[in-house]
Amino acid sequence: MKTVKIKGMSCQHCVMAVTKALRGVAGIKDVKVDLATGEAAIEEETAVDLQAITDAIKKAGYEVG
Fold first, then answer.
1. Contact call for residues 20 and 38 (beta carbons, < 8 A)
2. 3-class DSSP assignment, residue 8
3. Are 45 and 28 in contact (CB under 8 A)?
4. Cβ neighbours for 17, distance < 8 A, ≥ 6 positions apart
5. Per-residue pLDDT of the chain in tens (65 residues, 90 and over written 9)
6. Class of domain 2-64
7. DSSP-derived 3-state class of residue 38
8. Where are the domains of the chain?
9. Three-state DSSP state, 61
């Protein structure tokens, strides 16, 4: 399981947007985004490149930090 720190989330809508973006990345089995910690816990089905995860988060409008 990978954990990624996310900057810019401020509400539940942000959590849903990041969750949806990450679930669209090939190889990701499940994702849990925690607003309080600003982190996403990513469970992989197959190995996922960190750049693909970063790109999905940025495309959703947030920063990886």
1. no
2. coil
3. yes
4. 60, 61, 62
5. 899 999 999 999 999 999 999 999 999 999 999 999 999 999 999 999 999 999 999 999 999 98
6. alpha beta
7. coil
8. 2-64
9. coil
| Amino acid, res. 10 | S
- Neighbouring CB atoms inside 10 A of 3's CB total 11
pTM over 0.85: yes
Q: What is the pLDDT of residue 19?
A: 98
Tokens encoding 48: 């996922």
Give counts: helices (H), strands (E), the chain: 2, 4
What's the burial of 38, exposed, middle or buried (CB within 10 Å: 0-12/13-18/19+)?
A: middle
